[in-house]
Every structure is written in structure tokens, then in C-alpha cells.
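Table S2 (text version). Query chain:
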Amino acid sequence: MLPIGMGMPSTPLLSGPLTPEMQENMAKIRYCTIGIFAAAVGRLCTGDVPFNDLICGIFGIFLLKDDENVFTCYSCLASSPLGQCAQPGGGGIACLMPFLLVASFNCIFLLLRFFIGGALFFFSFFNS
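Corresponding C-alpha cell output:
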């Protein structure tokens, strides 16, 4: 994943145990990650290639490595060659910024695609 605070000693690294407030927000991120994978399947069914959605979902799985609900999925990804791309810690809260960055770009580009495509693009989802 992307290193955070590399070369900047004044920037604290995101690590350590999660606070209760952070755990509540991570539960929301878990549902968003599941929704991202569901959206990727939907886009695949319409003939689109959901590469960005899959990358965002993988970032979400690495972000949720401490969550007991997605731990089996995380361990599968961590033991694959894709696990070599993770930091030495293997994910966790340090993946928050890459997840937010990719999710933000996905939202921006999908909104642009929606507004450029117009109403016919919107209704094509309901007709197929």
C-alpha cells in the first residue's frame, strides 16, 4: 500500500489499537466495502470492467484486517501474491488514506460519467 508519513518525522504513523469510536466507524467502512464489491459485480453484469472498484475493495479489505468478519478474506489476500504489496504491517488503519483516495476518485469519475451520459445512461440501468 502507499506509505504514509514516509520521510516526515513530524507526521505520526497511523498504527496501534483502535479506539471505540474508530471501531464504530470501521463497521461503517465494512458495509461500504461490501457495497463496493456488490457494485463491482453489478458493473460486471452490465458489461463494464470494474477494475477501479475491485482495487478499492481490496484496499478496504486490507484496511479491515483487524475486523473478525472479514479476517478470512484478508488472510486469503495476504497469503496471495497481492499480499506482498502491503506494508510490513500488512494493512490496518495505515490503509485508510489509500482507500479514501481511490474511493473518492471512483465517486468523482462515476458522477462525471452519469452527468455526461445523461438521462438515457441512468435509465439504461433499469432497462437491462
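Notes on Table S2: Confidence is low (pLDDT under 50) at residues 7-11. The chain has four helices and no strands.
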